[in-house]
Amino acid sequence: MTGPDRAAGSARGVALIIVLWTVAALSVLVLGLVHAQRSELRLAGATRSLTLDAAIGQAAIQLLIQRQRSPAEGQARLQRVPVGYGGREVVVEVMPLAGLIDLNAAPEPLLAALFRQAANLDERAAAALAAALLARREQRLPDGSHNRLQAVQELLALPGVDYGLLARIAPLVTIDSAGSGRVNALAAPYEVLLVLARGRADIARRVADERDAGRPGVDTTRLEAEFIDATASSRYRFTAYVPGVDGATVAVQRDVDLRTAPDPGAEPRERAPWQILRARQWRLAQPGALNVDAGG
Question: What is the pTM of this model?
Answer without folding.
Answer: 0.77
